[in-house]
Amino acid sequence: MRLSITLLVIVVVSLTFSSDGAQFTARDQPEYVSMLQLVVTPERFDGRLVVVTGFLSLGKEADELYVTQSDERNGILENGVSIVRSAEMRDKKAILDHKYVRVAGRFKLNNRLKARFTSGGFEEVQSCQLWSDPEHPVRDRLKHMPGVDPN
User: Fold this and answer.
1) What backbone torsions phi and psi does residue 147 show, to the nearest 5 degrees?
2) Mean pLDDT for the chain?
3) Which residues have CB under 8 Å from 150's CB, separation 6+?
4) How far is CA 78 from CA 23, 45, 117, in A?
5) Which CATH number fits domain 24-142: 2.60.40.730, 2.40.50.140, 2.60.40.10, 3.90.930.12?
6) Residue whose C-alpha is closest to residue 134's, from 89, 101, 112
7) pTM to 2 decimals?
8) Are 27 and 47 in contact (CB under 8 A)?
9) Among 82, 75, 68, CA closest to 115
10) pLDDT in tens, 19-59
11) Comparing C-alpha atoms, which of 145, 123, 98 is closest to residue 47?
12) What are the domain boundaries of the chain?
C-alpha cells in the first residue's frame, strides 16, 4: 500500500513539473474570439493563440479570412485578416476555399504578409476546419437531423 502511494506521488510530481505537463501560459491557451473582435481590436490578440470562424478566400496572390462572404465578394479588406496557408489548407483547398471555416492559430498584428488594409493575420495556423458552406448552410443541414429543431 505504501509503495502504491509513493508511486502515485512520483507520477503526480513528474507530470506537474515535466515539459509535457499542464504548465501553460495564458498565451498558450487558445482564446475563442469572433472575427469582429479580431478586426476591431487586433492589438488585444497580438501574439496570442486564437480560434475564430470566418469566410476563407484562398487566392492566387493572397489568402484572407473575412468576417462575411459579402465582405470578400465586395473586396472590403478592412473586414479581414491575412492568413498564411498551411499544408492542411493546401491539401484541402477544394473543401475550404470560399467557405466558412474555423481557424486555430497564432495571430500577429504586423505579420509578414499583412495586406495594406487588413488588421494583421495568422502566421502559424494549427488547424483549419470546414464550418459551413454558403451553398449548403449549417442551418439547412440541421433541418434534416432527427430530434433537432433549427428554429
Assistant:
1) 80, 5
2) 81
3) 139, 142, 143
4) 37, 17, 5
5) 2.40.50.140
6) 101
7) 0.75
8) yes
9) 82
10) 343 444 555 789 999 999 999 999 999 999 999 999 999 99
11) 123
12) 24-142
